[in-house]
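Figure 3 (text version): structure tokens given as input.
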């Protein structure tokens, strides 16, 4: 059985019956219709790979003009459709004209079954090849930023991190959905990528989707894709992130920021394992491993009715809770040296050491931005220092920043802590959203959502 869906269009009932009886023995699905005027409806509701199209429909017609017209129409919907024309009137010139207009092949009626099977088999291979190329092109366009950035790996000897790594090794080879919780900057994307690297899907795509920076109006088109003409700027078909991640892993970052209507749409996709592009009604099967992450208290949100309990059950088969950097003891210094080496190489410097006073400064600081903030501090220090070691002054951790430490190390609820940090960053930068977002390690869109959430 060949993995391809065939649509046969002919005004002769005997031809349709003969084609269906023969082809259903060899292909996934065989659809038939008597009029090409049904093409739009059939293609919008069904996943079709190959179209076997008659060239003449009007009584007595033999010039093939109708077939050429409908060929162009089909290819205007999707230029990658495999269209094989058929006619009872053999004409070399017509065949050449059809191939020039985009037909894949041309067969005569009545056909020999062996010839028809060989032609459609070749067409199925071509269709699969075209789909793979198209998918890779879309993936390359969508994630070229991620491809250019070298993803970090897990660094740490603290007991909490060692326990997380042991859990990761157990969970990674399965297809269990994983929810990663932790404050901003604790390394949730790093853990997600480690899960993927140690999974059976490691040779396939790792698709990172930042839901926090995704405009609500673009949610469906970005995640589920759209058909040509679905809206004003939809000039071509585009697969969504779920389709592009098919066979691999999709990482939904900041999932706690989704509104209830969007949560419902996501839940439907996860339950049915299908997506429907905007502007289409046909469902497309997907096979993805789901990893989600958030810094928000989802259980509290469920109790308040702002996060769906059924969605939480769906996404957290296994839960990983990442500790903040201030609770990881000497991992602070281990990570600092890791970043020191990385940035020294990047900026072609020979800095090998962090002096004792600078190390103590790092240990005393509360790190509201966690590992991401430490990374930025070390990068800046490497760039600015004229010495062969990092000093306390190179770190540029101002005394005001240490004022947060006593508060941050209490048992303050996560929401209150986050509100305080957002408020302090905005006050510090006198309302400059870009600078405040950079200090907090957030995008501008994510910071605006928190401002709205906390009523600041």
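Below: residues designed for each position.
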């Amino acid at each position: 059985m060949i993995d391809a869906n065939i649509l046969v269009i002919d005004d002769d009932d005997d031809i349709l019956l003969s084609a269906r009886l023969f082809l259903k023995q060899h292909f996934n699905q065989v659809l038939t219709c008597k009029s090409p005027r049904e093409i739009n409806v059939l293609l919008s509701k069904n996943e079709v790979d190959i179209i076997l199209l008659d060239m003449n429909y009007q009584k007595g017609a033999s010039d093939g003009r109708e077939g050429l017209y409908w060929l162009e129409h089909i290819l205007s919907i999707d230029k990658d459709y495999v269209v094989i024309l058929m006619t009872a009137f053999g004409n070399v010139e017509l065949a050449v004209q059809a191939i020039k207009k985009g037909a894949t092949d041309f067969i005569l009626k009545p056909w020999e079954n062996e010839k028809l099977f060989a032609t459609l088999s070749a067409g199925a291979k071509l269709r699969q090849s075209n789909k793979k190329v198209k998918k890779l092109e879309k993936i390359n366009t969508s994630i070229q930023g991620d491809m250019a950035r070298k993803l970090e790996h897990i660094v740490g000897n603290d007991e909490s991190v060692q326990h997380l790594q042991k859990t990761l090794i157990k969970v990674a080879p399965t297809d269990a959905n994983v929810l990663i919780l932790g404050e901003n900057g604790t390394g949730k994307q790093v853990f997600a990528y480690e899960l993927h690297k140690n999974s059976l899907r490691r040779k396939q795509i790792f698709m990172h989707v930042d839901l926090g920076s995704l405009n609500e109006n673009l949610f469906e088109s970005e995640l589920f894709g759209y058909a040509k003409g679905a809206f004003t700027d939809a000039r071509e078909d585009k697969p969504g992130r779920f389709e592009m991640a098919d066979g691999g892993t999709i990482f939904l970052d900041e999932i706690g920021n989704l509104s209830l209507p969007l949560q419902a749409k996501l839940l439907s996709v996860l339950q049915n394992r299908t997506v429907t592009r905007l502007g289409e009604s046909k469902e497309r099967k997907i096979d993805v491993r789901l990893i989600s992450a958030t810094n928000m208290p989802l259980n509290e949100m469920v109790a308040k009715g702002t996060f769906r309990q059924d969605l939480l059950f769906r996404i957290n088969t296994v839960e990983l809770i990442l500790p903040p950097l201030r609770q990881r003891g000497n991992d602070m210094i281990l990570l600092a040296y890791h970043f020191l080496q990385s940035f020294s190489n990047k900026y072609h410097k020979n800095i090998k050491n962090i002096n004792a006073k600078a190390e103590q400064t790092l240990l005393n600081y509360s790190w509201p931005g966690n590992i991401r903030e430490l990374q930025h501090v070390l990068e800046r220090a490497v760039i600015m220092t004229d010495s062969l070691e990092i000093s306390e002054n190179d770190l540029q951790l101002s005394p005001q920043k240490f004022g947060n430490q006593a508060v941050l190390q209490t048992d303050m609820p996560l929401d209150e802590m986050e509100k305080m940090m957002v408020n302090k960053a905005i006050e510090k930068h006198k309302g400059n959203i870009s600078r405040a977002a950079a200090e907090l390690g957030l995008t501008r869109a994510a910071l605006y959502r928190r401002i709205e959430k906390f009523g600041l």
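The CA atoms of residues 274 and 285 lie 4 Å apart.
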